[in-house]
Backbone:
């Protein structure tokens, strides 16, 4: 790729943060991120250049641009900006046109039926990019002086695809309360749109050619500058795995009944909508490769949830399937820069016989508990029959030592008539203050119902102790 088509990344001053930083990002129109950046380029200071191309933040900080990109063939735009976004939808089903999703007033009213208890985002319309399936919620809340904004990145799949295993892509919805969401039926066209934001790659050598699913988003601080969005995601390629005993389970992307290999990837953005991939050290562009033949993660790596613990200390929690023990497990890797990772081994396996996580743990989400500084892990547990529930673990050393919070799951599939009666998983925790001043935790999750119909739900746990979660029932939160 020549210099004329090199991707550019805008980074603001460190003093701008939270909702104010987001407001600046959403108003900027001078940037369209595309292409792929090599991790080697990011690691060399001489690859950076400073230009005055966009308005400075009010604090007068400089603007930093990355101008070096990969030389691999066939690199094209990763952001889905070449399609239309004809409608913005409110909530889970109805379609309506909204002016600007950042400033639209979203209603806060009860869901009409107990069948939908907990459901906050249903499948999109028949012709939308997420009309056939959705899940993997990554939810962020930003609070300003007079408003709050919620962002949800999630994966979706359209109806009528010739190959359902090759069309999982990534989209964005926004909300003013985290309950009712504005969504788009097509691809984003500007920094104010919502909808489809990133597609799979078409490069033959890439690890994410068949499916992509978001795992975690962090604001990565850069010395003397503000943060940019770093999105860690799971990418699936066309390589098929021989895991016959697990073909009845939903590991992720499948093709003709076969399970596809997955690896972790990274993309960055200035506005959360236009993304450029950062290539890892692996030949496929992934951040990590599977383990050796006899190692526990030799089959695949999925759901890379990254926690920024401090300067030069990032930790990735991911899951795989331990072929030797026949169980899913969560592992840990560590990094100084968020790109080059060193594995530290398995940290959480399966529970005892008869437990909700007998067959193992997967899709972990780790957050810091502001009350005592400990770390909490919400994870998806799989029982002996393959049914998914959500459990919790707590860490005493904030690194390798994890203990289950309780033997029972904190959220189980709903009753027979519920929309999520077949399984719940892909948990994502958000901490917030309740109206009474007490601590409150929200748990966003993927639910699966009859005929494999999926949706994104929300459960709430109030009080200082994180325990059982109850599905949202329309209360004013």
Residues:
């Amino acid at each position: 790729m020549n210099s004329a088509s090199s991707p550019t990344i805008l980074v603001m001053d460190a003093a701008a943060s939270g909702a104010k930083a987001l407001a600046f990002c959403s108003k900027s129109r001078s940037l369209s991120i595309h292409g792929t950046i090599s991790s080697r380029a990011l690691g060399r200071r001489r690859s950076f250049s400073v230009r005055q191309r966009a308005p400075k933040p009010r604090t007068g900080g400089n603007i930093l641009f990355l101008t070096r990109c990969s030389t691999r063939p066939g690199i094209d735009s990763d952001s889905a900006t070449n399609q239309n976004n004809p409608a913005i939808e409110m909530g889970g089903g109805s379609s309506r046109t909204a002016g600007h999703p950042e400033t639209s007033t979203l209603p806060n009213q009860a869901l009409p039926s107990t069948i939908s208890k907990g459901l906050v985002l249903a499948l999109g319309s028949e012709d939308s990019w997420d009309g056939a399936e959705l899940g993997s919620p990554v939810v962020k809340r930003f609070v300003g002086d007079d408003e709050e904004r919620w962002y949800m990145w999630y994966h979706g799949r359209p109806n009528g695809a010739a190959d359902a295993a090759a069309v999982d892509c990534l989209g964005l919805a926004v909300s003013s309360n985290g309950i009712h969401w504005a969504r788009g039926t097509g691809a984003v066209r500007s920094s104010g749109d919502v909808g489809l934001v990133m597609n799979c790659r078409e490069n033959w050598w890439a690890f994410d050619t068949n499916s992509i699913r978001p795992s975690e988003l962090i604001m990565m601080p850069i010395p003397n500058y503000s943060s940019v969005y770093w999105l860690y995601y799971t990418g699936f390629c066309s390589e098929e795995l021989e895991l016959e005993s697990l073909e009845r389970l939903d590991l992720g992307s499948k093709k003709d009944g076969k399970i596809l290999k997955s690896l972790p990837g990274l993309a960055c953005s200035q506005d959360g909508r236009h993304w450029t991939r950062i290539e890892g050290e692996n030949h496929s562009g992934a951040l990590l490769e599977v383990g050796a033949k006899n190692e526990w993660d030799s089959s695949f790596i999925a759901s890379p949830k990254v926690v920024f613990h401090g300067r030069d200390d990032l930790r990735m929690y991911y899951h795989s399937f331990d072929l030797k023990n026949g169980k899913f497990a969560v592992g840990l890797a560590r990094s100084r820069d968020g790109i080059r990772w060193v594995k530290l081994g398995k940290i959480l396996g399966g529970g005892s016989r008869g437990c909700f996580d007998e067959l193992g743990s997967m899709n972990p989400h780790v957050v810091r508990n502001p009350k005592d500084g400990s770390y909490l892990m919400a994870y998806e547990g799989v029982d002996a029959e393959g049914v998914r529930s959500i459990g919790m673990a707590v860490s005493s050393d904030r690194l390798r030592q994890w203990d289950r919070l309780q033997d029972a799951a904190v959220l189980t599939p709903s009753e027979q008539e519920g929309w999520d009666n077949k399984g719940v998983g892909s948990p994502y925790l958000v901490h917030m203050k309740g109206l009474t001043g007490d601590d409150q935790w929200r748990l966003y999750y993927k639910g699966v119902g009859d005929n494999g119909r999926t949706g994104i739900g929300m459960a709430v746990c109030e009080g200082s102790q994180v325990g059982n979660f109850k599905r949202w029932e329309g209360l004013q939160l």
